[in-house]
Design brief:
Two copies of one chain form a homodimer. Chain A has 187 residues and is an all-alpha fold. Chain A has one domain. Chain A has eleven helices and no strands. Chain A is globular and about 50 Å long. Chains A and B meet through α1, α6, α7, α9 and α10 of A and α1, α6, α7, α9 and α10 of B. Chain B binds a DNA duplex (30 and 30 nucleotides) through α3. Chains A, B: It comes from Brevundimonas terrae.
DNA sequence: TTATTTATACCGTCCAGCCGGTATGTAGCG
DNA sequence: CGCTACATACCGGCTGGACGGTATAAATAA
């Protein structure tokens, strides 16, 4: 059952990533926690780069699956992909494990441009089925940027954000269309 | 002239960081480019952690100096620290070197919580002299989050943002006070 | 004044551990 | 017999950093 082995490797690698960070993600560290040997690992992933790519792809798939789930359950077609993105990024309960994985993945992408590119591809793939994104709508972009900023703040604890502030931010984001109007008023 | 040696080490380390990323920043790599030996490096920075902290502090000082410069030249007191932050993060011409350093610093902070904490301290220190920040104003926070999201997008090239979109974003950010009104309308 | 100690700044080598990866098997299966 | 899916042993490079020096200059004591 080679496929099972593969996913076991990937799941374990993500677990290691969550616990020890990207520097702790070594081939040996994965092998230690797994029911088979280093040879098996290197059989399925010929080198560490391949493993890392596998991990990113695995995370990317989960990410996209979550977005798709939110997307299809959204009754309104217009802008649903953006809304699903926002919910995925900011609404999900943030466990310590999520934070660790987020940090590690961010670090990995920051270190290795190839991984960043790969993650970007997942982001793009998840940005589908939405006329606003297709049109490159300004407001959807802004909402995404704000959500990304909030996500990063969550990862690093940059700003201390109160629950009320967070709720306000979330509702503003979900409203989602107001910023361009605002711009026109100011201009 | 021990102080000069110290700053030479730090500058060189940042240079290495920009060129080879955080994984390329080894003690030997710094020593190679410097007029003295490894012993000297270890004399000024007893271990690698100390060197990394020094690098973060050095970057933090530059960052804060830039913000202070923008702050004092801003005629309007109200909200100047937030505006200075925005300008520093989004207005500056982004060279490839800036991107590399940003990536590397981000990675370093994502990997090592202690460094993240240290950077956070610099951020806090730069967030001074502003009644809105003191009051934890929602709009200033939102502008910062959006700017952070844009900064990250610049680092990774996540979104393709046209010059017009960028200009629009910048002006919206500088306007900076409208979002709370908007929230009330929506609520 | 001079001798002695102490602290600073720096040099250059060597090592031990870790880590990615290779090389060489082998057991099962079609 | 050859291919897949593993196991085991081993290696060499890199890296952090320990260590044992040296040169200089200031502090201290005689």
């Amino acid at each position: 059952m080679p496929e099972a082995t593969r996913t076991e490797i990937l799941d374990t690698a993500i677990e290691v990533l969550a616990e020890k960070g990207p520097l702790g993600l070594t081939l040996d560290a994965v092998v230690e926690r797994v029911s088979f040997s280093k040879g098996a690992l290197l059989h399925h992933f010929p080198n560490k780069t391949a493993l890392l790519e596998g991990v990113i792809d695995s995370l990317g798939e989960s990410f996209m699956a979550q977005i798709e789930a939110y997307t299809v359950q959204d009754p309104q077609a217009y802008g649903r992909s953006a809304r699903a993105y926002l919910r995925t990024v900011i609404d999900e309960p943030v466990t310590q494990r999520d934070v660790s994985i987020g940090r590690a993945a961010l670090a990995a992408c920051a270190i290795d441009p190839a991984l960043a590119q790969r993650w970007k591809a997942w982001m793009k793939k998840a940005r589908y089925d939405d006329p606003r994104d297709a049109a490159g709508a300004d407001d959807a972009l802004m909402m995404r940027l704000l959500a990304d900023g909030l996500w990063m703040s969550d990862l690093f604890g940059t700003y201390e954000i109160s629950p009320e502030q967070r709720r306000a931010l979330a509702s503003l984001l979900m409203a989602g269309t107001a910023l361009p109007e605002l711009m026109e008023q100011k201009a």
